[in-house]
Design a protein that fits this description.
The chain has about 220 residues and is an all-alpha fold. It has helices at about 5-25, 30-55, 55-85, 100-110, 130-145, 150-170, 180-205. The chain is globular and about 50 Å long.
Length: about 220
């Protein structure tokens, strides 16, 4: 991996990292969708650069195009359609307060930069910050699933976690055959369709998507 690419990859990692952080802070679901689209754009550009600088250009360029089409264009449009139908659930909150959320995020970042993950830096000694940043991105995405009250926000958190894992694997050069990449994207599309169906059922049953309000089942 060239020095120039490491710099560009670090910039894309910063973008993905900041989008995950702001996903904890925004209140409107539409803002979550925009942040997810921006994060997915960073992932697709990473694959594009891997294809451009690497030897397997056809695989990485096609994978980048598929990720861009599905995650940056189709998924946000699909989520926007869901939010228009569920107009009463356009906002979401955290279980923890904003100061406590920021405190936990800071702790996760410090843990990612600790000596626990220092052995991973042996792969790219000159890019330990990028390695730690990708580890922090995974932890922050997991925390997004735990801290968010809304079902829709948790769904976006799951997709953010998938992005962070893909970005982490791409950094370490863990590539998959093109059919497998296409299959994974297809699974995500099917998952989004099924999830939207269940979101509609939950909203019709409870009149809300906030997990804090779903304390007891109703007939």
């Amino acid at each position: 991996m060239s020095e120039n690419f490491l710099g560009i990859f670090f910039l894309l990692g910063i973008i993905a990292f900041l989008t995950a952080v702001f996903m904890h802070l925004v209140r409107r679901s539409r803002s979550l969708v925009r942040l997810y689209a921006l994060q997915s754009f960073a992932v697709s550009m990473t694959f594009f650069l891997l294809g451009f600088l690497g030897g397997d250009r056809s695989l990485m360029l096609v994978a980048a195009a598929i990720i861009f089409l599905v995650k940056v264009i189709i998924a946000p449009a699909f989520f926007g359609k869901i939010l228009r139908k569920l107009s009463g659930s356009s906002s979401t909150n955290n279980y923890l307060s904003t100061p406590m959320t920021l405190l936990v995020l800071t702790g996760l970042v410090l843990f990612s930069f600790s000596k626990v993950f220092l052995p991973l830096s042996a792969i790219y000694p000159q890019a330990f910050v990028s390695v730690a940043l990708n580890i922090a991105l995974v932890f922050i995405s997991i925390f997004l699933l735990i801290n968010r009250r809304g079902v829709f926000a948790q769904m976006v958190g799951m997709l953010s976690l998938e992005n962070s894992i893909v970005l982490f694997a791409a950094f370490f050069g863990l590539r998959h055959p093109l059919p497998l990449e296409i299959g994974m994207i297809f699974d995500i599309v099917i998952w989004m369709v099924i999830a939207s169906f269940f979101l509609g059922m939950i909203y019709r049953q409870f009149g809300t998507l906030s997990t804090a309000d779903m304390k007891r089942l109703t007939e």
